[in-house]
Amino acid sequence: MRLLLFNPNTAAALTQRLVASASRVLPADVDLVPVTAGTGFPYISSRAEAQIAGAGVLDGLAERAGTFDAAVIAAFGDPGLHAARELFDLPVTGLSEAAMIMSLSLGERFAFVTFARRMRPWYDEQVARAGLAARFAGTFAPEEGFGSISSVAEEMREPLLRTCLRAAEAADVLVLAGAPIAGLANDIADDVPAILVDPMQAAVVHAVALHRLRPQGADRGSYARPPGKPATGLPAAIAARLAR
Amino acid sequence: MRLLLFNPNTAAALTQRLVASASRVLPADVDLVPVTAGTGFPYISSRAEAQIAGAGVLDGLAERAGTFDAAVIAAFGDPGLHAARELFDLPVTGLSEAAMIMSLSLGERFAFVTFARRMRPWYDEQVARAGLAARFAGTFAPEEGFGSISSVAEEMREPLLRTCLRAAEAADVLVLAGAPIAGLANDIADDVPAILVDPMQAAVVHAVALHRLRPQGADRGSYARPPGKPATGLPAAIAARLAR
Amino acid sequence: MRLLLFNPNTAAALTQRLVASASRVLPADVDLVPVTAGTGFPYISSRAEAQIAGAGVLDGLAERAGTFDAAVIAAFGDPGLHAARELFDLPVTGLSEAAMIMSLSLGERFAFVTFARRMRPWYDEQVARAGLAARFAGTFAPEEGFGSISSVAEEMREPLLRTCLRAAEAADVLVLAGAPIAGLANDIADDVPAILVDPMQAAVVHAVALHRLRPQGADRGSYARPPGKPATGLPAAIAARLAR
Amino acid sequence: MRLLLFNPNTAAALTQRLVASASRVLPADVDLVPVTAGTGFPYISSRAEAQIAGAGVLDGLAERAGTFDAAVIAAFGDPGLHAARELFDLPVTGLSEAAMIMSLSLGERFAFVTFARRMRPWYDEQVARAGLAARFAGTFAPEEGFGSISSVAEEMREPLLRTCLRAAEAADVLVLAGAPIAGLANDIADDVPAILVDPMQAAVVHAVALHRLRPQGADRGSYARPPGKPATGLPAAIAARLAR
Amino acid sequence: MRLLLFNPNTAAALTQRLVASASRVLPADVDLVPVTAGTGFPYISSRAEAQIAGAGVLDGLAERAGTFDAAVIAAFGDPGLHAARELFDLPVTGLSEAAMIMSLSLGERFAFVTFARRMRPWYDEQVARAGLAARFAGTFAPEEGFGSISSVAEEMREPLLRTCLRAAEAADVLVLAGAPIAGLANDIADDVPAILVDPMQAAVVHAVALHRLRPQGADRGSYARPPGKPATGLPAAIAARLAR
Amino acid sequence: MRLLLFNPNTAAALTQRLVASASRVLPADVDLVPVTAGTGFPYISSRAEAQIAGAGVLDGLAERAGTFDAAVIAAFGDPGLHAARELFDLPVTGLSEAAMIMSLSLGERFAFVTFARRMRPWYDEQVARAGLAARFAGTFAPEEGFGSISSVAEEMREPLLRTCLRAAEAADVLVLAGAPIAGLANDIADDVPAILVDPMQAAVVHAVALHRLRPQGADRGSYARPPGKPATGLPAAIAARLAR
User: Fold this and answer.
1) What is the dihedral of CA A197, A203, A209, A210, to 10 degrees?
2) Distance, CA of F12 to CA of F17 (rounded, Å)
3) What are the tens digits of pLDDT across the range F83-105?
4) Which of F206, F181, F242 is nearest to F94 (CA)?
5) Does this model's pTM top 0.90?
6) Is residue E210 a contact partner of residue E70, using CB atoms and an 8 Å limit?
7) What distance separates the 2 farthest-apart alpha carbons in chain C?
8) Domains, chain E, ranges and CATH?
9) Which residues contact B175 (CB under 8 A, 6 or more apart)?
10) Chain A residues in contact with C108 (beta carbon < 8 A)
11) How close, in Å, is residue D134 to chain F by CA atoms?
C-alpha cells in the first residue's frame, strides 16, 4: 500500500524529521509518500493557522487523489481531518487522533507532553473534540521558552525530560506532541517510567490497520461523501472534488 | 456600534433573509453591516465545506478589519469562529454559539430543529465542541427531503412545525438551525408549546452584549493573538494579519 | 426598559457597590431599579442562607411585579433563580449564570476567583448545576482570611491579585465572584494576563440581551408558570402570585 | 433512635400515606416521628414551591431540634436538603437522594416513574444535581392526566403500571417518585419485571444506616455549620439556629 | 439477619481487623459471619489479583449459599461484586461501593486515601466504573513506601494522617481505602477536618439497609440470575449454582 | 509475529468461526495461533461467566507464555483484558476494545448490534469502562429470541439486518458484537447504509499495529507487572507467573 504522509506545515525539515520517525515502524510492504504543504505556515501553532492549513490539506489531498491508499495528516491538531474523511474514500488519520487511539490500549490514562505552554489549550481541545476526556490527564509543557523551532527537540531535551517525569505521575502513557519533536520519544524512552508514544509512529501503524480493516475508509454514515456542490474561488483540485 | 454580519455562504439571498431576521431585534444604535462571502459555497452543509469556508471567513474579516466593532459569523456551524477569535481583538460569535448560549437562560434543555437529516451529526458536534451536551436534547429534522434550498423555509413549513412539536417533548427551547430558515421561528412561534430561538437574532443580541461588556473581545488567554508568522500562498489581507 | 437589580443581601452598601459596577456597562435606554432585600442576611455565604434568601427573592419580585421588564438576582449563587423563572414572564438571570454564560464567548475555560475559601464548594456547585463543568477550571481563593465583608475588596486586593495570577495559569477567563468584590475586576484588569469578568456587568448586558430577544422570558417549556395553588403562611405578594 | 419524617407538604393525608409506607421497613428500635409542614403547599410540584418549602423545612427542623436523631425530608425533590445538612449535626436525607442511592446497589441503571409529565424536567434535575446521570435512564410518566392528587395512586394505577413496563425496558430499578404514590411500589411489584423502589422506604433504611455510621452527620467539610450570622425577618427558631 | 463478611484475601489477620472495625457499627440483631478466602492471595493489590480473587469470591459464596442473608465482599476494589449480584438473590455489596455510596450523603465530594501509590489508578477505576466521577476528588497516598502489609496501619499512621490533611483540602469526605487500614478512620478522626469513612463500617450499615429494603437483592433487571449453563473445570459449588 | 487468538469460550466451533473471520484481514507475515479455552463455558453471556472466564484467560495465557508475540482475547466483553495487560509484557487487546477503537476513526458515533437483548446492559458497560460513552449510540438487539447459539448468525440474519438498519439511524459505525456472529458483518455489509465492523477483524489489525508500535506492550505505568506474590490454590502456570 501507498501511505501518504501529508505534512501541513511548509517546513521541509519537519517532513524529514517525520519520515525518519515513521521509518522506525514502517512495514516492509508499505510505501511512504511524504509531501510537504506548498501553502500555509512553516509550523502550525494556533487555531487560526490550523483553520487555514486544514483547507490546504484538502486541496493537497485532492491534487494527489488516486496516488495513495491511505493518508496521515502529519501535524498535531489534525488540521482538516474530519473534512478529509468526508471527501476521500480511503482511511485518513492524524497525529493527535492516532496517538490518542493507540494510547487507549497502552494504559488507563494518557497525557500530552509538548514544548510550548501556549499550545496547551488547543491540544486539550483535541481530546475534548474526540470525546476522550475521561482517559486524559492533561497537556504538560516546560516552564522554559524555546529558541528555534527547527532545533527544539535537541534544545529542549532536558526540560522535556523533566516534564515527562512530572507527567508520569499522572498518566501511564505520554504522547510527545508536536511534529518538531518527532522521534524524541525513542531517544528518551529509557529515562521515563511511563510509555512514550510518538504520534507519527502511532499514525503509521493505525493507518495501516485501518487500510487492512476497511480500504474504503469512512465512506458511509455521517462522513460519507456530501452531495456535489459548485464552489467559487477555490483551487482547481479541491473544487473539482467537491463538485462531483 | 457597527456589527458585521458576515455570511460565509455565497448566496446573497441568504444574506437578505438573515438581515431581515436580525432587524427584528436590532437596537437603534447598532449599524448592521451585512457581507456575503465572495468565495466558497452557495450553502455550507458539510464539515469539508465548513473547513474551507472558515478559512474564507478569516480572510473576509481581515479585509474589513477596522470597519466594524463586533462580528457575527452568520452560518450555523460557526465556520472559523475560534480561529477568528484569535485574530481579531473584538467580539466575535456565531449562529450556533449564540443560539446555544441564549438558550441556557430560557430553559433547562435546548434542541436543534433543522430541515435536513444529514446535518444532524455535524450539528450535534457543535454542542459537544462547546461542552454543553448536558443541556442538549438532540438535533431533530423532518423525515421528508426538501426541494430547493432557497425556498426551504416555505416549502418545509409544515414538516418543520411537526418536527418542532416532536422536539418540544424533549426540550424547553428549540433552536431553528440553518440560515435558510432564518425568520421561521417568528412565523410559527404561536403554534409550538416551546420557546423558539432564531440563531441570527440570538447572535445579534449576544454580540451587542459582548461588545458592551468587553469591546476588545477575547484578547487574552488562549485566544490572544498568536505571534506573527510568515505565510505562503494566502490572500493578502489574511497573510498581513497573520504576519504582524 | 426597566431592569430590576434585586440584591438578596440586606446590606445596602452592597447594593451601592453593585450599582456602581453595573453603571459602567448600562445602556442609555435602560433604567436600573436597585432594590435591597428587606429580610434575610447581610451577606449570603452558605447553602442554607441561599435557600432562605431565595424564597425572599420570590416575594421581593412578586411585590414589585409590573414595575420592571427584566430582573437580575444580584448575588453570586443566584438564590431563587430557577424558581423565579417559573413565576415571572420576563427575563431573569443571576450573577453566576450571566458570568458563566458571557465567559463562554471570551475563552475556552473560565474560573471563579473569590475572597473566601469556604465558598469554593458552593460556587463549584453552580457550575455543575448549569452543566458547564467541561469549561470550568475551578474556584480559586486566597489562603488568607479576611477582616470585614464591607471592605474586603480593598483589604484583599493584593491576595486576590495573586490568586488571579494563579488562576490565569488554568483559565482564559476569570470571574471575580461575590457581590462584595463587585467592581474589582476593572481595578486590577491591567495586572492580570487573563480576561476578568465582573458578574454584575455580565448580568446587566445579558439581561438586556434576553429582553431584546424575548421580552416574555421563559414562559414555555418546563419553566412555564405552574398551575395556581393555594398556600399557607406565606407573605401576601408571593401567595397571590402562586395562587393564580 | 428517633427518626423525624418531615413532610414539607401541608396535606396531612400525604403524611399518613408516607408513614404507612415507612412502617413496612421500620426497624423495631426506631421511633418514627411524623410531622406535617405548617406552612407551604398541599403538594409541592414546581421549583418555585420547592424553593419556598425548603426554607420552611429549615424552620420546621429548627423548631424540633433536640427531639430527633436523624431526619428525612419526605418530598421528592428534597426541598432544603443541602441547606439542612449545613445547619444540623445529624444525618439528613431526602426521598430523591435516598432512592437514587439505594438504587445504585440494586441495578446498573435506575429510572424515575411518576404520575405527571410536567414534573419530569424537575425530577431529572435531581439526578444531575447529584452527579448520577451516568446511571440514570430518565423520568417516565403516563400520557394521561390525573384527577385528584389525593387519589392519584389508585386512579392512575393502570397507567402507572404501563409506564413501569415501558421504563423496565431501559432500567433495572424503577423509583416510584412522588409522595402521593408512596406505597404503590409494593402493590404492583409482582407485575413489573424490574425492581421497584419506594423512596420513603429507601429514605428510612438509608437514614438509619447513616445514623449508625455517623450520628453527627455531615458536620465537617463544606457542609459544616456556617459561622453564626444575624438575620432579619425570619421565624424565631431558624433565626436562632443561624445566629449561633 | 446473618451478614456474611467474605474476605477475598487469604490473610486471616485481615479478617480479624475487618471484624473489629465492623463490630463498632453492627446492629444487635445482626450476626456477622466472617470468612477468609481459602484460595488466592494474602492481600489483593492489582487488577490481575482481583480478577482471580473475584472468581474465588463466587465459589466461596456458592459454597455457603443458604447460610447468610446478605454479603459484603470485604476488599477494596470489590472483586466479583457485579458477578455475585447476578448469581445470588440477596443483597451483596463491597467495601468500595458502600464507602462511595455512604459518602454521597455526608458531603459533596469524596476522596480515597490509601497507603500505597501504586493502587491509585486501580482505585480511581472503581469510581469511574460506578459512574460517580462527578463527586470524586481523587485517590491520595503518601509519598513514602511501607514495610509490612500486616502492620501498615500502625507503621504508616503519620504519613496517612498527613495525606488526609492534604486530601481534606479537596474533599468533604475521605474514605480510608484498603482492608489493611480498616479501623484507622476511628483512630485519627479527631485530627482531620473532614469526615472519615471506614469502608468496612459503611458496608455493614449499607448491607443491613439493603436487606431491610429488599431481602431478595438485585433479582430482576440486568442483574437477574442468568439462564443455567454447563461449565467445565470449575469447583463444584459454583458449577452447581451456574448450572441451575 | 505470532498472534495468539485465545477464545475464552469452550466451544471449538466458535474458535473456527473466529479464525475464519480473522483470516480475511490477516497480514501475510502474521501467524495466527488459535486456542480454545479448556475450562469455563461454551459461550460467555453474563458478568458472572466473564468473571470466571477472565481468570481462565490469565491461566491460559500463562501456560503459553513465550509462544506468542501479541494476544487477542476473543470474546466480546474482553474477560480478563486489563488483568492480562498487567501480567504479560506484550500487546493484549480484546474484541470489544479493538472494535471500539477502530470505530473511532471510521465515524463519529458507533453502536453495538448483537443478537440477544439481555446482553445489552453488559455490553453498554464495556463502553462506560473504556470512557467512550460520548461516542456511543447504544446497544441494539432484535426483539426476537434465538434458538441455538451455534447457528445464531444464520438463524437471526434477517432480524439482525433489520436491527442494523435501525441502528444506522443513530450511528455511523455498527459493531456486530458477539463471537457467534463473527463474519456476519461481511455478509450483510452491502445491505446496510453504515460501516459494519467485525470485532475479530478489528482485533487482528489493532493487535498487529500495537505490536509494531510497542512490542513490549503496557509494561510501564499502572499496567506494569505487579510485584511477585505467593498464591494459594491456583493452577500452576498462573501461580508461577504471579510469584515472580
Assistant:
1) 140
2) 9
3) 999 999 999 999 999 999 999 99
4) F206
5) yes
6) yes
7) 54
8) 2-94+201-243 (3.40.50.12500), 97-199 (3.40.50.12500)
9) B99, B100, B103, B110, B111, B112, B113, B197, B199, B202
10) 121, 124-125
11) 9
